[in-house]
């Protein structure tokens, strides 16, 4: 193979790499990508990240990244991603967030644990580690001591393995991965 063909092949593979990995992007990678779709004053000002319930995997595929936007009437701009690709940008109705404090920018110095690690921590909890976990839904939220991941899990039912049961929630510190709270009920798979 000539040197030109090798270089051309390498260039094509590098160009296609983001699309090949798009479905595997973590929440923090999506937040960084979302900076391209918001105003300069909103970049890196994360307020919340959340996902829809995952399908056929523990890793969610649809994510919403909310940034603080001082020019929006409700102070937020949201970028929706599907399979790692931008789907739409909106100014969501967030009426209760100013009252609950969920409209504040998350402390970036405490964002060390990404979504992939939060799922791993949640799935290894003693009450669910022996279950066949099928799906998750995630939220990066404000906690009493800093940002937390709320990870909701579903597992296969024992008698009807094609059906899923909600087995509860694990709250994980986004700063150090410690467990803040668990509300797991593995008996729901019976």
Textual characterization of the structure:
By secondary structure, this protein is of the alpha+beta class. The protein has one domain (22-189). 21% of the residues lie in helices and 34% in strands. It has helices at residues 3-21, 27-34, 97-100, 115-123, and strands at 46-51, 62-68, 76-82, 85-90, 133-143, 146-156, 164-173, 179-184. The chain has an eight-stranded antiparallel sheet, with helices on one face. The relative contact order is 0.14. Residues 5-23 have low confidence and may be disordered.
What's the main sheet like? 8 strands, antiparallel
Intertermini distance: 59 Å
Low-pLDDT windows of residues: 5-23
Judged by helices, strands and strand pairing, the structural class is alpha+beta
Helix share, percent: 10-25%
Average pLDDT level? 86
Proportion of residues in β-strands: 25-35%
**SS element count, helices:** 4
What is the count of β-strands?
Answer: 8
Cα shape: globular
